[in-house]
Amino acid sequence: MSEDGEKDPGKEQKSSAPRPNTAAARRERRAAASGTGSDAKAGKSAPQGKAGTGPGKGTTAGKDRPTPKRSGTTKEKTEKHSLFARIVRFLREVWGELRKVIWPTRKQMITYTGVVLVFVAFMIALVYLLDFVFLEGVDFVFGN
To answer: Which of 37, 75, 76, 130 could bond 32 through an S-S bridge, CB–CB 3.0 to 4.6 Å?
Structure first.
């Protein structure tokens, strides 16, 4: 819609129908959108690749056979690199993984550190209290 309330000719409005909340409703919505709605439902056949249907059932092309080995090997596997090249590659991969990390903000770090310190202080107090109670219990039972 434009500012004056008229419909923009270039933009289509999405339907106001609620989103499906079950798998069956989602499948029906997808089938209706792709144009295979009632025609595909008449046969009631499961999609190919589902358990119990398709060419894999009863043949060796299905899930009952092991995954075949890869026929070719890559250049990296057949060629031995020098120690220096392997170290450089390792460091590049580490750097790439570190770029993917979502680092906490300063405020989050202060909050997390505070939570850890409070928890550690609580555990120290609990262990001290239990140690004191057991010491008094042993002194009471065995006398001193």
So the answer is: 37
Residue type, 45: S
Tell me the H-state helices in 35-105: 37-43, 75-78, 83-100
User: How many Å from the N-terminal Cα to the C-terminal Cα in the chain?
Assistant: 88
pTM over 0.70: no
Parts of the chain with a pLDDT under 70: 1-17, 36-62, 71-78, 144
Evaluate whether residue 122 is within a structural domain: yes
Give me the domain span that covers residue 135.
103-144
Radius of gyration of the chain (CA): 33
Element (H, E) at 137: helix 106-142
Query: How many structural domains compose the chain?
Result: 1
Extract the tokens encoding 46.
């499961």
Q: Is residue 104 within 8 Å of residue 112, measured between CB atoms?
A: yes
Q: What pLDDT sits at residue 33?
A: 81
State the Cα–Cα distance between residues 23 and 36, nearest whole angstrom.
17
Q: Is residue 59 part of a domain?
A: no
Q: How many C-alpha atoms does 3 have within 13 Å on its Cβ side?
A: 0
Q: Is-contact 24 18, C-beta < 8 A? A: no
